[in-house]
Amino acid sequence: MTPLEFLKAMRKYVTHAHIKDVSRRLLLRLEENLPVLVQVKVAIGEGVNADNIKKCVQFLKETNWDGGYLN
Predict the structure, then answer these.
(1) How far is CA 32 from the centre of its chain?
(2) Comparing C-alpha atoms, which of 7, 12, 37 is closest to residue 25?
(3) Distance separating alpha carbons of residues 58 and 4, to the nearest angstrom
(4) pLDDT value at position 28?
(5) Could you tell me how far CA 21 lies from the centroid of its own chain?
(6) How many C-alpha atoms does 69 have within 13 Å on its Cβ side?
(7) Is the pTM of this model over 0.70?
(8) What is the pLDDT of residue 20?
(9) Which residues 6+ apart lie within 8 Å of 48 measured at CB?
(10) How many H-runs (helices) and E-runs (strands) does the chain carry?
């Protein structure tokens, strides 16, 4: 299930959103089981989840999400 599919299924229960992206460098280190000693920061939209984030934010906009439950 993609993040967007999950969001669509759970949309009526969403009361807040936490957005986090991961740099390609960090992802590669994790996949190679290398030690990650420093936090690798990446701007939203510049990491490996950029496309998923964009789709989810667009869906929330299209459904007029305001941070509350759907009735």
Answers:
(1) 22
(2) 37
(3) 10
(4) 73
(5) 6
(6) 2
(7) no
(8) 75
(9) 21, 22, 23, 24, 27
(10) 3, 0
The number of beta carbons lying within 10 Å of the beta carbon of residue 38 is 7
Q: DSSP per residue over 36-66, as a string?
A: --S-----TTSSTTHHHHHHHHHHHHHTT--
Task: Report how far Cα 15 is from the mean position of its chain's Cα atoms.
Answer: 15
pLDDT (tens digit per residue) in 9-66: 999 998 888 777 777 777 777 777 766 555 556 666 677 788 888 899 999 999 999 8
pLDDT digits (tens, 9 = 90+) for 11-25: 999 888 877 777 777
**Other Cβ atoms closer than 10 A to 36:** 11
Tokens encoding 43: 């701007």
